[in-house]
Amino acid sequence: MRQFCGIFMTKLKEYERRHPILIIIWSVLITALLVAGVMVGLSFRHNTAKEDEYIVFNNKYIEKELQQILKKDKITQEDLDSLRTIDIEDNQEITEIADLAKCKKLTQLTIKNCKLNDISAIEGLNELQVLDLSGNEIKDITALSKCYSLTELTLTNNQISDISPIYGLEKIQKLVIQQNNIGNIQEGIEKMKSLTFLDLSKNRLVNINQLAKIEQLNFLYASSNMLSETPELEGLTNLILLDLGNNAFSELGYLGNLEQLEELDIYSNHLEDFDVLKSCPNIKRLNISYNEYSGLNGIEQCPDLEFLSMKGTKITDISVLENLHNFNTIYLDNDFDRSQIDFMIGNFKNGDEKTKQYLLDKQYNLND
């Protein structure tokens, strides 16, 4: 054997001397084959690892929605980490969103008009800033109590009766929670130190006095509730808009010192007097439609008034408005005597269609 090896090496050296180029070519080919083999092995290992990285979803409907958002059939954790916004609407198959707990970097989440009733997965989404869960079947919002980065929260049209779990969310600026089952406001809502916009319309509220503690509030919507007694809102000195329409007020007295208030909506109640205007002498927009008013005595308390809607009332004389120099917009019933609004020619800005046409014709005739 040793002799054979010696003869082979001698022949190989002789061959190298005679054919050096062929030897180089063979060396390159062998090296290339070895490298290719290594690369195939690495690729196989990489693909196997990649398969292991793909997320296995428990909810096929959530998976399909994410596939559409990401435009991918297979999704990795890296893909989910890249998501900042998710918008899912009108999917009646979605009742829970546990799979979204993996989307840790989300800042905006919308799940509207689904059948969602379990939102526990949201608890770990610490970077969430804007959340809209309108049109679902949510009753319990405890899972939101640790979403400390939220600035806007919309929960319209659900089955929520208790909003106290979110009182500790100090960054929320806008809260829309209309069309739920809220019957009262528990103590502690003043902890929401950034809240400036609050919509509680279409609930079952009988008292909103607790809201007076939200001193920084600018916009308050409490229409379509069951309010019948004058609310005590003394602390709301920064309020700009107040909507108390479509409630059960037969009297509405002094609300508090609301000198910053510019718009008051008290439509669709049973009101007859303007005692409420003592609270807000600086209002510019007033909606008193569909009440029991028979006159405008008292409205002179608001010298800056620009807008008045008085449809569905018993008012026939509006001469007092002639003394309001900024007045430019009015909404009247079709059968109202519009000869009384001639004083608005030249200062008219907006109104119902019949009023617009009347003043347009008047202006045209004057120009002739």
Automatic annotation (TrEMBL):
<dbReference type="InterPro" id="IPR001611">
    <property type="entry name" value="Leu-rich_rpt"/>
</dbReference>
<dbReference type="InterPro" id="IPR032675">
    <property type="entry name" value="LRR_dom_sf"/>
</dbReference>
<feature type="transmembrane region" description="Helical">
    <location>
        <begin position="21"/>
        <end position="44"/>
    </location>
</feature>
<protein>
    <recommendedName>
        <fullName>Disease resistance R13L4/SHOC-2-like LRR domain-containing protein</fullName>
    </recommendedName>
</protein>
<keyword id="KW-0472">Membrane</keyword>
<keyword id="KW-0812">Transmembrane</keyword>
<keyword id="KW-0433">Leucine-rich repeat</keyword>
<keyword id="KW-0677">Repeat</keyword>
<dbReference type="InterPro" id="IPR055414">
    <property type="entry name" value="LRR_R13L4/SHOC2-like"/>
</dbReference>
<dbReference type="Pfam" id="PF23598">
    <property type="entry name" value="LRR_14"/>
</dbReference>
<dbReference type="InterPro" id="IPR050836">
    <property type="entry name" value="SDS22/Internalin_LRR"/>
</dbReference>
<feature type="domain" description="Disease resistance R13L4/SHOC-2-like LRR">
    <location>
        <begin position="109"/>
        <end position="348"/>
    </location>
</feature>
<keyword id="KW-1133">Transmembrane helix</keyword>
